[in-house]
Amino acid sequence: MDNHQTDVAVVGGGMVGAAVALGLAREGFQVTLVEQQPPGAFDASQPPDVRISAISSASVGFLRSLDIWRRVQAMRSHPYTRLETWEWQQAHVVFDASELQLPELGYMVENNVLQLALWQALEAHPRVRCLCPATLRAMTRGPDHRHQLQFADGQTLDAQLVIGADGAHSRIRQWAGIGIHAWDYNQSCMLISVQCDSSPGEATWQEFSPRGPRAFLPLFDNWASLAWYDAPARIRQLQSMPMAQLQREIAQTFPARLGKVTPVACGGFPLVRRHALRYVQDGIALVGDAAHTIHPLAGQGVNLGYRDAEALIDVLATARGYGERWYSAPVLKRYQHRRQPDNFLMQSGMDLFYAGFSNSLTPVKVLRNLGLMAAQRAGVLKRQALRYALGL
Questions:
Q1: Picking from 46-60, 117-131, 358-372, which range would have the lowest pLDDT averaged per residue?
Q2: Tens of pLDDT along 166-191?
Q3: β-pair type (31-34, 3-11)
């Protein structure tokens, strides 16, 4: 049986875990990344990945600091400069990059493109070791206060710090005995890759309805992604349809401004709110979906994960620079204090939107549309809300 040692073990090599691993390696930590499956190769001739993320301008800045963004742009990404949302036609809220004197609000990026760009940098970094494919069997605490990860093939890995970046059903979180607050929204989301008859432009929009929003995300060339929120049974029904039938359903449900689109692929997932009771304990830290999941109607999920990553890297690097026990609970709590309130605030805001727009009572509809009309005329407050959503 082989035993290995490392400063930091990052469990989960997705978009957030890979960014944490790379950032810590660039700060001089010895990092081991543990992942079950590597990202697939990029093929520019293939349709876009069904899984799409709206990367905010602040997240783009973080990825630039890791020297990753140029790799993303060498593959595929698409800027969006305008965000529009409405329920009634006379109650539109429009956010434009020019309001904040920005060239764009962010970029639409396929998840596999972002993950692959990070892995390319990880594999070239001398302070990173990737264990992939690798299947974990257990995590135990040793007498020297290090955590030991035990693998299905008999190998072990001792780490001063284990970072759980292994998603909503995090085994690291479970093995650490960290509980969560969670509830089901009783709603699912389906993402649909579509070809448009013309260029999708640089505006993303979202129409609210009591059954759930309908959103349009522009991509490269003539491609776009549609987000369809609805009851779980309805989403399962839509997923089972042939593409020609799904095309008819899209035409009947989405607003006329969508125009004619041809669906090519789709995938759905249930929506569940989760928030870890704590993000850290001695030698353990959680980031991204392992710490929190959020209703995706504002596209904040991966952006909150990148805020986690940036904060954790800063806390660890600063503490080690001052000679502190950077893997200890008192140091790690600085990361928790920076991120937990912000994530809770964003989750609560999305919950309010979900609750407010899921009600079909006429007085409630009038109030929420009056709220949208007021938001459009809010001036400075509107710009501040946009800056907060973008992480600026």
A1: 358-372
A2: 999 999 999 999 999 988 888 899 99
A3: parallel
Residue 13 lies in a domain: yes
- The single residue listed with the structure tokens 């960014």 is 19
Which of 373, 344, 368, 366 has its CA nearest to residue 357?
368
Q: Residue 290 in contact with residue 284, Cβ under 8 Å? A: no
**pLDDT greater than 50 at residue 361:** no
Nearest to 292 by CA among 165, 187, 391, 390: 165
Number of domains in the chain: 1
Whether 142 has a pLDDT exceeding 90, the answer reads no
Name beta bridge partners: 223.
Answer: 195
Max mean pLDDT range (136-145, 231-240, 291-300, 366-375): 231-240
Greatest extent of the chain over all pairs of C-alpha atoms, in Å: 68
**What is the predicted pLDDT for the residue at 369?**
43
Q: Evaluate whether residue 166 is within a structural domain.
A: yes
Please indicate, yes or no, if residue 309 is contained in any of the structural domains: yes
Cβ partners under 8 Å of residue 116, min gap 6: 39, 40, 41, 42, 75
Q: Which residues, in sequence order, are bridge partners of residue 54?
A: 108
DSSP single-letter state for residue 169:
T
The CATH code of the domain that includes 166 is 3.50.50.60
pTM (predicted TM-score):
0.89
Could you give the 3-state DSSP secondary structure of residue 240? Answer: coil
Cβ-contact 315, 68 below 8 angstroms? no
Distance from C-alpha of 220 to C-alpha of 193, rounded to nearest angstrom: 12
Q: Give the closest residue to 18 by CA, choosing from 74, 79, 62, 70.
A: 62
Q: Is the pLDDT of residue 390 over 80?
A: no
* Domain with 147 in it: 3-42+57-76+111-182+273-355
Query: 206: closest CA among 197, 195, 217?
Result: 217
> Roughly what angle, to the nearest 10 degrees, separates helices 301-321 and 15-26?
20
Q: How many CA atoms, within 13 angstroms, populate the side-chain half-sphere of residue 378?
A: 18
CB 333 within 8 A of CB 280: yes
In a domain, 49, yes or no: no
Q: Is the dihedral of CA 183, 187, 188, 189 positive or negative?
A: negative
What DSSP string runs through 184-224?
A: EEEEEEEEEEEEESS--TTEEEEE--TT--EEEEE-STTEE
- Tell me which residue has tokens 């299947």: 135
Q: What gap in Å lies between CA 302 and CA 59, rounded to an integer?
A: 9
Pairing of strands 82-86, 203-207: parallel
How many other CB atoms are there within 10 angstroms of residue 168's CB atom?
A: 16
